[in-house]
Design brief:
The protein is an all-alpha fold. The protein has two domains: about 60 residues; about 40 residues. The chain is built from six helices and no strands. The protein is elongated, with a radius of gyration of 20 Å. It starts with a helix and ends with a helix.
Length: about 100
């Protein structure tokens, strides 16, 4: 085979690999809600920003933040104070207060 054809075939295989790996990432994101964006990015060996771009390109809107906000709402409704909720979720007390205020709207 000519060098040009080899280069073309290598490019084709690489693009096919990228398409498959993107599908794998999207599938993993959708079916493993316990994994964070950072964990998925580390698993794939890419940056979080690139993972967000992959998800966006494939029509997936990342919603991990909403899930964590739901957890904050649930803990607050159970009667935990802001400091306890912050400790459970990894947010600062200020973040918890802001989420709490957004709930009232």
């Amino acid at each position: 085979m000519s060098k040009t054809l080899n280069t073309f075939m290598d490019t084709l295989n690489f693009r096919q690999y990228l398409a498959n790996s993107e599908a794998d990432l999207v599938g993993l994101y959708l079916h493993a809600p316990h994994l964070t964006i950072a964990e998925l990015a580390d698993h794939a060996g890419i940056s979080k920003a690139r993972l967000y771009r992959v998800l966006e390109r494939n029509g997936v809107v990342p919603n991990r933040l909403n899930r964590k906000h739901d957890q904050v709402h649930h803990l607050l409704q159970q009667g935990f104070n802001n400091a306890a909720v912050a400790g459970f979720t990894g947010y600062t007390e200020r973040n918890v207060r802001n989420i709490k205020n957004a709930m009232k709207d």
